[in-house]
Amino acid sequence: MFFKIGVSGASGQLGRAVVSELLLRGGGHEVVAITRTPQAGSGPAQRRFGDYNRPESLAEAYAGRPPKPLRDVLAAALQPLSA
User: Fold this and answer.
1) Domains in the chain, ordered, with CATH?
2) What does pTM read for this prediction?
3) How far is residue 43's CA from residue 60's CA, in Å, rounded to a whole number?
4) What is the mean pLDDT for each group of 10 consecutive residues in the chain (83 residues)?
């Protein structure tokens, strides 16, 4: 099962780590880094502008992301890495 995973706060310390970990684990998931500064990012994740102080920007940032139950996303994203 493949997921489209949007990570808000992706330019912060925790968000950056979450995006990196999701990309490291692979699995074919599409990772979208949502941040106030998408131009500052690097790496293979798609970057989109999103700012909690501008709620309309979040609707645009998450457009095309079908809602998934959190348990399904976490189960897919937190699988142990293969050695």
Assistant:
1) 4-77 (3.40.50.720)
2) 0.71
3) 21
4) 84 90 85 90 86 88 65 57 53
